[in-house]
Write a structure and sequence with these properties.
Helix content: 25-40%
Largest sheet: 10 strands, mixed
Radius of gyration: 25 Å
Distance between the termini: 68 Å
Strand content: 15-25%
Amino acid sequence: MQISSLLIIDVEYVEVGAKGGKNLSSSSAGAFPDLHDPRDRRLPLIAPPCGLVIFGITGDLARKKLVPALYDLANRGLLHPAFTLIGFARRDWSSAQFEDFILKSVQRYARTPFQDATWNQFKDGLRFVSGTFDDDGAFDRLAHTVRELDQTRGTGGNHAFYLSIPPDYFPSVVEQLARSGLNSEHGDAFRRVIIEKPFGHNLSTARELSQVLRGVFDEEETFRIDHYLGKETVQNILAMRFANIMFEPLWNARYVDHVQITMAEDIGIGTRAGYYDGIGAARDVMQNHLLQLLALTAMEEPVTFDSADVATEKEKVLSAVRLPDNLAVASAVGQYSSGWQGGKRVCGYLEEDNIGPDSTTDTFAALTVYVDTRRWAGVPFYLRTGKRLGKRVTEIAVVFKRAAHIPFEDSSTQELGNNALVIRVQPDEGVTIRFGAKVPGVDMRVRDVTMDFGYGHAFTEDSPEAYERLLLDALAGQSPLFPNQREVELSWEILDPVLEHWAQSGRPEPYRPGTWGPQSAHHMLARDGRQWRIP
């Protein structure tokens, strides 16, 4: 007689520990030690019991991105039932008014379907504290609320603080967290701070901000959000490079002619004048998003995908970035003027609401850099970003050299360009490979064709929003997708000389809406015998 055994694991007893690793209840951990292994992929990463305080809960970022992402995580079963969201803002709201605000945000912006069961559990963990950032009493009430949640919700002393506020307010909030004891950890519980870009205005202010943060939170407790690093296609850069043998042998100066990294928007600043003016395109996008994309594209293979190993390789790249000697021809700066776009008349930057007539804020920035490593010696990386451009697109284009010997007549290959591999970050996330193929017919004519991979076609599961991944990682204590302070400082060391050069050069060059930036940006590549891709 043969007896079969059935092993049943009650997943409700499986949770992520306070420091982010998977744990079983004490009665089970000894019986199933393999599930404690962080490499085990049979169970998804789940946030531990914890609370999240969002400062600036009424702002657009929280309303359109953060709150919906948290609900979507709950809908996917990735938040612990004890999860609690505390909103902090100046509004004199009752609990019912705050709940209604969160409900409307979820119903309008959540990616996953609305479910009553999820909402009922989610709303039970909602709390609101009214106050300003200089109000000691408000932070004392916040501290009391946090302690009460540990007792009534079982959050276990685990709390994270999201600063969805302008950087000028960071020091006030961080100092209040320290004064009220909200940063203090007890036992294995965690306290973390999550901050949004920009991480400073230049190198010196970035270091000042770091000193403020480090006086209250350790570096491993500080999570700097760059939402681009949470996008599936950005993470796919590493998967594509290091999981496939066909790409890595060509990923070097022997075969690559140049790399173009573009983040373009077809809209103006809208209602963001208060934030954008004085910041500009280079500080808003190039210092963080574009240089992070460059680092991921150019980095060597990490030992593991743990945060420390990935950061080490990114730091090496950023340390090796070199600016050309003549920034006048190796960079371009612009500001959109009035004109027609999409069949509508649009105003210029200086005509936008709350923008002064003498503003020199850049709405377009382009830059040539080199990565002085053996892999990339002599290969230019062209970075560009701007508003009111031809279309909304973010992509990385690795453009290869022409074949050394082409046994064709010139007329046969006049339609053939350089081979290219294009990683589309947004929209239409995917990868395109451009190569030459024979045109059907009796003649030998070769022209460009493309092979295309699209996330929406290849996978049935929708890609989660970037903030879902980043919020979950921050709550679980995982940080491979978050730039560290050294990366921030290296990025400012690259950009500061460029900003100083532009400040001394006068006003940004105007460009018409719907175009691809000022003429100086096109001349920048034309001098090298190249041209920008038209996405």
